[in-house]
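Sample intake — Histidine--tRNA ligase
Collected from: Salinihabitans flavidus
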Amino acid sequence: MPQRAEIRARADALRARFEAAGAVRVETSVLQPAEVLLDLYGEDIRARAYVTSDALRGEQMLRPDFTVPVVQMHMEHGAEPARYTYTGEVFRRQEDDAARPNEYTQVGFEIFARQAPADADAEVFALIRDALSPLDLRAATGDIGILKAAVQGLETTEPRKRALARHIWRPRRFRALLERYSGRAPVPPSRAALLADGDPLARAAPLIGLRSKAEVAARIAALREDAAATPISAVQVDLIDAILDVRETLPYALERLRDIAVDMPAITEAVFCLQDRIEALDKRGVDVGALEFEGSYGRTQMEYYDGFVFGFYAGTRPDLPPVATGGRYDALTRVLGQGREIPAVGGVIRPGLLLRLEDLA
């Protein structure tokens, strides 16, 4: 296994490579305010992060990644356009896989630019690919933006669209909601009984917890409204499934998605963005004819990715995590920018894993 000194040396070399590409070196605190991440991702983030409490600063979280603090830094006082690079430890719980480290080093490269998003996507991908070129890694790509556009184009209520969009990164929950909203799955008995009761609050036990009676009543009203909504059509569910089932090299994936767009025009603009990205990647010498695209790729990564997503994997070691991952996160800048926003894309490399694979080669 690589030693810490070796990992730090490789991390410094990778960061210098990104600096040579025009990135400014930045540092972020290891301890981050937990409130920001909890607001972004809800309580789910607690299962993946280390949280502590400070009498003066409140809940703090050991840095689970760099993107959120880098975005905060840029939105507070960054110039435009901007390129950043960084390196340091991140901390993730691994309750389902004790063999994976819960502390490891990342090196990253981020671009904040309003012009030519496809070119920025291609630049980040190509820089990381070149840094990993000594290894024969499998590259995978996807586009969360296409699935988000498909959800927004569904002929259903806005609350249902919001719920589906919120759970894009939770495939099982997304599927359960889609099955329920389309009428393919029965209403849970407890909910059916609640909806059948003319005045469920009249016989309810005394309220406990943080919700007021008015909030509970509003929730019941929302459930009644949802129950009365027209089911999502089987045709539209099949189109969502068709997008998720796309697994081709980029040119063939583009053709398949164009065909789907004929019946689901809501994804047309996102498909044009994919076409622009393919052309930008080709200009940077990426063999797009051999590059994989998966319609469902990126749905189990951090929830801020909302467009292009990618990863590099050791094909002979499927048990290992990706050596590098990245993607576009435009919406995150809007959330953290307090009224300001700027398109952004970036990626990270795990130098420790890179060294380990080199030793195995």
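Post-analysis note: DSSP finds 14 helices and twelve strands in the chain.
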